[in-house]
Structures
1.
Amino acid sequence: MNTTDTKVIDGYTFVKYSPEQYSEKEMLQRSKDFYQRMDKRRTVRDFSDKAVPQQVIENIILTANTAPSGAHKQPWTFCVITDPAIKKQIRIEAEKEEHESYHNRMSDEWLQDIKPLQTDWRKPFLEIAPYLIAVFKKAYDVKPDGSKATNYYVNESVGLACGFLLAAIHHAGLVALTHTPSPMNFLTKILNRPENERPFLLVPVGYAADETFVPKLERKKPDDITVYY
Ligand code: IYR
């Protein structure tokens, strides 16, 4: 790198950054195109078992890893599960918790609110989808000497990474479900994760089943979600 492309401030190196810029016309078109592409994303529960190249999943996770994070700590671990025996174990444990939730833990209001989705405690997609990505947040980091290092804005950071993950999955022509069986401590055990990691989101990924139906829904309108000052 040319030395004019870097500068050192207080001992820390900064590299020159020249983000792409577009004419106003191009910007309008690009922002609209991206919105229209993202507006096609839907949460899907009916997966095909068709294989997906692992490199695609690797690229999707690389994209998630570009998300901003508190102090650039990147407090996340993506566990990629393809082993049918592990998927089965996850399904069994998730269904156990979901059965309890649907029957005893969720309020009437909650059950009413998710009625349009027509979900129940059964989670066959946990075995059908070719990949399960279990996202863990790192409550803190463990230094080589075993001591703890603080992470910052962990929920915000990992939430952003999951948003990037979902956008990358959609961009690749695949579908996903943001699944949060609750509680999901069983993932820590099954996947043998260390004490500093907590399960955050379970994301089955794959192709949509040949005939897939999703709930008919409306998105809020600009006036409902935006205030200009
Ligand atoms: N976790 C349950 C219930 C559920 C809760 C919400 I909030 C949803 O948007 C959808 C489902 C399940 O996965 O079935």
2.
Amino acid sequence: MNDRRTFFQKLILGAGGLYSLNLLETLSLMKTESIKNPSRKLIATWNNPKAIQAAWEVLEKNGNALDAVEAGARIPEADPKDTSVGYGGLPDRDGDVTLDACIMDHLGRSGGVMFVKNIMHPISVARLVMEKTPHVYLVGEGAEIFAEAQGFKKENLLTPEAKKAWKDWLVRSEYKPKINSERHDTIGILAMDGEGKLSGACTTSGLAFKMKGRVGDSPIIGSGLFVDNEVGCATGTGLGEAVIRKVGAFSIVEMIRNGMHPQKACEKAIKRLIDIKEYGEFQVGYIALDKKGRLGGYGLRPGFQYITADEGKVVLHNADSFYK
Ligand code: ASP
């Protein structure tokens, strides 16, 4: 039986967040099998079954957490239907798709890129910044030059659908960047591999119709992603301006370090956002995984979902939220 089928046959739907996974609806659900090594865990923002599957395939073959999170993040980056990540991402207010990503491994190494155009897989560029340069970040043109030198090809990432959405927005929205409280699809993905090593990745096209040059939380180590292999890791999605102000991911890992369960740490970090008033009704969702393999996820508002692969089960969770 191929990996894909085996994987989906292990799928169950979460009791707390029963939700129909359209891609999987037609597959019959079979009795849950346990994976060989129960320490392997995955958690990712939003309903991203193909991303979690790609990451799981790496872990299942005894691959490491870093390879798993990169493989997972590359799926929405290449998906033209995902309007918040990579190819198909909604552009900035000038019609350019600009991408941000970062990655962090169990050694505490990190790499990131920001404001990158025409490169489909910023997460892989971020990894190469981490592995092949003496730096943590490359941005804009510098990141694009580095990516090309590493063999990435330049591609137009603006799909006809995204272009149309931008043209429509120009008419309605008077050329102002949009702060949205609705759905974000940024993928943050965290993994623990069979050796108990932690890694994380986060990749996004950022807010739709943002100002040129705007960067959110997603590529910022400590805000959009943080991994401490001794403690745990966290990532998030939503209005980056708010997350940056509270240093979201790092604060969650620090709370876990001080003994908090990842679920409680996500809840506490979300509560810290409620004094931010100037953006109106915005959304943020956090997820976390600790060194013991415990998972957490919580949203500021209803609608945040996250997906986990845990001891042979894939579960889509409708996250609980601060505002009901
Ligand atoms: N966090 C992303 C940003 O602010 C947006 C998102 O999650 O959709 O750029």
